[in-house]
């Protein structure tokens, strides 16, 4: 029963947003979802969000694989873009999953990617591609070449600062980029260090599963090291709970434990486990494109609003 209640209250949180019309007109779930979808997709239907004073650069990190880093980076980015903000996703994982989910073919031979950007062979503007999902949604894709970068970077000068140096402010400004989200690989190697040096904020996705906090201590220690030696402004600003399954007691226990640990850094919005969310990248789409009326889309839209509003309130 307790679990049922939790999922109902999550729905209520979702339901309180402007993109979710009042339920009395849409008395079946499908009709309600269709109504939400059409509202979300109407230009300006999602509402506008305030632009941050300067570009916010967030690193999405957790050295555990499969916790929802890529899914969160891509769908938060899509959520922010839908609200009128300019967003750049930097795919820093050789797997290129973020690039795929944003509908960018990263297997084209010879494309300019984050690898060439890190090596200083191309400029930021030349490595950026537009996602078909939204004209305000941009991406620097990753190719398999990036798998070698971890080693190649070791011998380069300023090896920890390559990404920061590549993110030139004028280009970000010219392209109207309000948010940069960096999708990290599942390790704490040089690529992740580059992401942490380039960003001011760390966003940690935590899966509502067994051993959720495993490895988070190590991640926090690494963040402290980067802070002490390379980037004094770096801090954990946001924690997102992902793949929440309201049917299990465990998910609630994990959520509680994470909130005890991270306090108000944890977004109120929890991302539910949903098959739709996992299907979307297979079609080269974000969840907002793939099924805009779904719970997964609504939750990422809510999370995007929270992320943007918190910056303004702080
Ligand atoms: P990471 O980038 O941390 O390795 P991913 O974002 O790739 O994690 O997610 C791992 C797997 O879980 C992927 O197959 C993804 O589609 C799936 N997934 C992520 N979020 C959800 C969700 N909310 N509901 C269901 N599946 C999800
Ligand atoms: Mg990933």
UniProtKB/TrEMBL annotation:
Transmembrane segments: none annotated. Residues 1-27 are annotated as: Disordered. Residues 56-235 form the AAA domain. It comes from the Bacteria. Residues 1-19 have a biased composition (Polar residues). CDD domains: ParAB_family. InterPro entries: AAA_dom, DNA_Partitioning_ATPase, P-loop_NTPase. May play a role in septum formation. Belongs to the ParA family. This is Chromosome partitioning protein ParA. It comes from Gordonia rhizosphera NBRC 16068.
